[in-house]
UniProtKB/TrEMBL annotation:
Domain of life: Bacteria
The entry's keywords: Cell inner membrane, Cell membrane, Membrane, Porphyrin biosynthesis, TPR repeat, Transmembrane, Transmembrane helix
Segments traversing the membrane: 42-75
Protein name per UniProt: Heme biosynthesis protein HemY
Intracellular or extracellular location(s): Cell inner membrane
Location of the HemY N-terminal domain: 26-132
Pathway assigned in UniProt: Porphyrin-containing compound metabolism; protoheme biosynthesis
Alphabetical list of InterPro entries matching this protein: Heme_biosyn_assoc_TPR_pro, HemY_N, TPR-like_helical_dom_sf, TPR_rpt
Protein's UniProt keywords contain Nucleus: no
TPR repeat ranges, renumbered to this chain: 369-402
Membrane topology annotation: Multi-pass membrane protein
Length: 418
């Protein structure tokens, strides 16, 4: 209905225009110097319409011509950009699928066409590296630097990752240190530096870097703790290994003391780090140097490992060592590890009765094989062989994973005296 009404309205308009054109054709005269142009008004309008149609047709043909030629060979900047973008998208798609050679080819073509050359050259370098074409990878990084001279950080990070992946740790370290000098607070550069230190087993450099990693929140508290303990365990182990050839006690202790002196006050109060240091001294036969260190720090950073170690070492003053242990025992009277250490020190001081009391008290709070063994040794020394055998047997049963029947007897080990 609406279409029919519109048709009637259009028809009426055409008839009205035709009537006007018949009744009054109009007259137009255009004169310029010696030239004149005469026409009816409606004739001039028709000429203008024809000229507009010709211009529209010619412009359309020109657009079609340039569109067709651009499809074959990109002549315009816009066509080049479209072509490069397509190459780039195809290259990154092949890169994500692991088709390294195809990705390298497409990405290099996209970079040379001028579409984001930095990103595409960096991706091409990674693809070439994965494909085993290391010379091409280096060349693409140089091209990226030439195309984007201000992008040193992005290029350096890519180069370092490629070097780490190839196992070129020394070269990677040099690259990362160069970036770290320019951007000392850059989180990803710090992560790469941490990674290369770990792979190089450069624990001293890693230990020095850890506080900065924690302060800038590059790593969380758990990773910091793990790396800290790993670093100092390795450092103390290396120092112990390097000290074994030294003749005097002072010379053997120097590498360990150097590490200890470089620690912060908080690290010296850490029970695990303190145990690593003291146990390293003991392993080198430097018990007399380990004892004062433990006496100084045990009250503030007590742990089972530390007190057990303190109970095993032999200091210059065994009586003082026992009195110190007993002073801690006043604050921890129900600690089985502390009681065991006190018993061992009482043994060294030849205080048999006190040692027995400490061992028996320790067994009340915790059944330990080494406590049974110490008490068995003490009772054997005192001539109480039956009780001594009983404690030895209990210790052996506790230390064994399982108790099996003896062959041909059907009786378990519990039926026999030791």
């Amino acid at each position: 209905m609406k279409a029919f009404a519109l048709f009637l309205l259009l028809l009426f308009g055409c008839l009205l225009l035709a009537n006007i054109m018949v009744n009054d054709t109009g007259y137009v005269l255009i004169a310029y110097e010696n030239m004149t142009f005469e026409s009816t008004l409606w004739g001039l309008c028709l000429v203008i319409l024809l000229l507009a149609g010709v211009v529209w047709l010619v412009s359309g043909l020109i657009r079609m011509l340039f569109g067709a030629t651009s499809f074959i060979y990109p002549l315009t900047a816009r066509a080049k950009q479209r072509h490069a973008r397509k190459l780039s998208l195809r290259g990154f798609a092949e890169f994500t699928h692991g088709h390294w050679k195809k990705a390298e080819k497409l990405l290099v073509q996209a970079a040379e066409a001028g579409e984001t050359p930095l990103l595409t050259y960096l991706a091409a370098a990674r693809a070439a590296h994965e494909a085993g074409n290391h010379d091409a990878s280096t060349d693409y990084l140089r091209r990226a630097d030439h195309k984007a001279p201000g992008a040193d950080l992005a290029i350096g990070i890519t180069q370092a990752q490629i070097q780490l992946s190839a196992g070129q740790l020394e070269q990677a370290l040099a690259t990362i240190k160069r970036m770290h000098k320019k951007e000392p607070r850059h989180a990803f550069v710090l992560k790469l530096l941490k990674q290369v230190y770990c792979r190089l087993n450069d624990w001293q450099s890693l230990a020095a870097l850890l506080p900065k990693l924690k302060r800038l929140k590059v790593i969380d508290d758990q990773e910091y703790r793990e790396l800290e303990l790993q670093s100092f365990e390795a450092l103390f182990k290396q120092a112990s290994s390097n000290s074994r050839g030294a003749m005097s006690d002072d010379e053997r202790a120097k590498p360990l003391q150097r590490i200890w002196n470089d620690l912060s006050s908080a690290q010296r109060r850490d029970p695990v780090i303190l145990y690593r240091y003291a146990s390293s001294l003991v392993q080198l036969g430097l018990e007399k140097k380990a004892a004062p260190v433990l006496r100084e720090h045990l009250p503030k950073c007590y742990s089972a490992d530390l007190i057990l170690l303190f109970g095993k070492i032999r200091s210059n003053d065994l009586k003082r060592q026992l009195l110190f242990t007993e002073s801690i025992l006043k604050e921890r009277p129900n600690d089985p590890d502390l009681l065991l250490s006190a018993g061992r020190l009482a043994l060294r001081n030849e205080l048999w009765g006190k040692a027995r009391e400490y061992f028996e008290a320790s067994l009340k709070f915790s059944k330990r094989a080494d406590t049974y063994n110490e008490l068995g040794r003490l009772l054997a020394h005192l001539g109480e062989h039956e009780a001594s055998n009983r404690y030895f047997q209990e210790g052996l049963l506790l230390a064994a994973d399982t108790v099996i029947d003896l062959p041909g007897t059907g009786k378990s080990l519990q039926s026999f005296k030791i």
